[in-house]
Amino acid sequence: MKSFLTHLECTYCGKLFSSEEPHRLCDDCGKVLYPRYDISSARKSLKKEDLLYRSSNMWRYFEMMPIINESNVVTLGEGFTPIFKTGRLGEKIGADHVLVKDEGINPTASFKARGLSAAVSKAKELGIMRLSMPSAGNAAGAMTSYAARAGMEAYVYMPKDAPEANKKEVLITGGNLTLVDGLISDAGVISRQKASELDLFDISTLQEPYRVEGKKTMGYEIAEQLDWQLPEVIVYPTGGGTGIVGMWKAFQEMEELGWIDSFRPRMFAVQSEGCAPIARAFDGGDEFAEPWQDASTIAAGIRVPSAIGDYLILDALRTSGGGAITVSDNEILNMMELVASLEGLFICPEGAATAVALEKLVAEGTVSKGERALLLNTGSGLKYLDVI
Question: Cα–Cα distance between 167 and 136 in angstroms, integer?
Fold first, then answer.
């Protein structure tokens, strides 16, 4: 198989960069870089029917992934997670067609496995062997797991009150863990300082170009698993927002490949009432989101006071005709129990937030009862035993 990767492009000012050397953010405007592909050539040789005979993981889309040499792929079998019809849950929350894509079944028990598989693979290809990142939890364990698989050094900076499972995951996979008295934003400052001091490559969310490529495979899979008919609504728990912008990127790529038409789901971002910078910016009509002060929520994955990809998230929400909504910690905890008792799915707090959000969206008439709505459960509830 051949990757059709050609270059990197700044998502804000449009400046182009080589994909053959390490980059983080645009050196002109400081915004997010995206990998770009020769899709016109890919369209001639890559057909969706070809996927029928490929392994059931995210690397089945290799031609539209950023690794040139297959031998550099660092994998634990991530991706191609199941989509469940949840009729009993739908009946309870007032929606006829509720689907849950369960990312908790990934290696490292969260969707972070996708982004870190892609980022670590590209780091290996570029000869980078020492990595650093801040994390609110699940990304840390994913990074150290894939770094271990690749024989790399991994340094993690994590809030002291992150879930215990994430701390232990980092340590048992050989990561160097530093606990920070603060939030992920504070951990990010330290991670970048240490990267400079210790000659590490920092792979914070959307501050390097390749994690988004792993996350975008959720979009490819949703299309393929639903027979190339996207749902009317996608509800996504949003911290750094790489999943939303990754899926949005995937939909555009698939349209250019001729795999889907121009129809797009309405994208809804879900945040906690205690940390909702994207929801506030969406409601205010802002291009960027101001950092949230005193962020607090039990859902560690969405306790992100500021997101460098805020303008990309807000654009996807608005262009799709979607929106942003907030939920409370009590609503999250109650929904975790409801989903587990009705459907047998032990979802994470962030995943439960999407079900709470859908119930509210249906109740207020923003989403109609008959629309097909897909919820992303981004991790396993088993990683949150200390907060339940």
Answer: 10
